Amino acid sequence: MLDRAVGYLRCPQCAKGGSLARVGGTLRCANGHRFDIARSGYVNLLPAGPPKNPGDTPAMVAARRDFLAAGHFAGLAGALAEIAATELTSPAAGCVVDSGAGTGYYLATLLDRLPGRVGLALDVSKSALRVAARAHPRAAAVGCDVWRQLPVADRAAGLALSLFAPRNAAELARILRPGGRLLVGTPAADHLVELIGPLGMVTVDETKETRLAGQLSPCFDLDAATEYRTELHLDHPAVSALVAMGPSSWHVEPGSLAAGLERLGDPVPVTVAVRIASYRPGPRRP
Ligand SMILES: C[S@@+](CC[C@H](N)C(=O)[O-])C[C@H]1O[C@@H](n2cnc3c(N)ncnc32)[C@H](O)[C@@H]1O
Ligand SMILES: [Zn+2]
């Protein structure tokens, strides 16, 4: 899939990022920088050396892949795809970039709703990239650190998605075409509320909405916001996967998870509440 995506990418080593071309098992720029394509199909476009933060661990990625494959968040993916299809009406409007894409599950759902469109799954985690490289026939998986310059050409994207992931406002604005949209999904205050206390999970930062607005406002204007909300009934293995796939996996000991699960019913009612906001690049974008 890299062949169709390569035109949207740019060299992370060249100032202002030169274009890349595929030569055998590598991507190369005109200045001789080369990047190997991994056997699993992703290309690592990190400028040099290992990243400071390697992203999600193999265990977190495996838990995320299994949890999402079971369809528990299919409603959320469908809601995002519906918004994407409504927002992205022009047929010539660039690729779809998922920044912090994880396994590429949401990007794949979006691409199913956007026929012919190419997707870029950006993530720093090699385990995630291996899964994302196979997420969809029109998606390419690209290794990068979203806090640095994205290896994506200026104005290449018609739509960018950032769901439960770090976001670099200036870079997202740079890669969006005029008229493009940024979709941001963040947990609402009561997301997973039934699990947070009993299982000692990481709590949602209740100032997040204000913080998000402050982070994005230099480059973006808010277009619309909605909330996706449902109640799931999860068995204990699914709850364990939900804990293991996110930041709480660093904090919740297996022993206390088992004890916490004992105290919860089976299945466990779980609120899923995600704020989905759509932004357009503002006049002050880079
Ligand atoms: C909570 S997961 C969300 C993944 C996906 N958006 C989803 O909802 O399934 C956050 C993702 O961001 C990635 N990530 C964290 N820091 C990153 C960085 N600095 N650059 C690129 N990806 C990063 C992690 O590896 C992980 O896959
Ligand atoms: Zn180069």
Percent helix among the residues? 25-40%
Mean pLDDT: 92
- Give the H and E element order: HEEEEHHEHEHEEHEHHEHHE
Uncertain regions: pLDDT < 50 for 5+ in a row?
none
Strand order of the largest sheet: 4-7-6-5-8-9-11-10
Assembly type of the chains comes to single chain
User: Percent of residues in beta strands?
Assistant: 25-35%
Major sheet size, sense and barrel closure: 8 strands, mixed
Compact summary:
The protein is α/β, with parallel strands linked by helices. The chain has helices at residues 2-5, 58-69, 74-87, 105-113, 126-132, 169-175, 193-199, 208-216, 236-244, 254-263, and strands at 20-23, 26-29, 34-36, 43-44, 95-99, 119-123, 139-143, 157-163, 176-187, 220-234, 268-281.
Please outline the helices and strands:
Elements (H helix, E strand, L loop, with lengths): L1 H4 L14 E4 L2 E4 L4 E3 L6 E2 L13 H12 L4 H14 L7 E5 L5 H9 L5 E5 L2 H7 L6 E5 L13 E7 L5 H7 E12 L5 H7 L8 H9 L3 E15 L1 H9 L9 H10 L4 E14 L5
Parallel strand pairs: 4-7, 5-6, 5-8, 6-7, 8-9
Antiparallel strand pairs: 1-2, 2-3, 9-11, 10-11
The structure holds S-adenosylmethionine (SAM) and zinc ion (ZN).
S-adenosylmethionine binds next to helix 4.
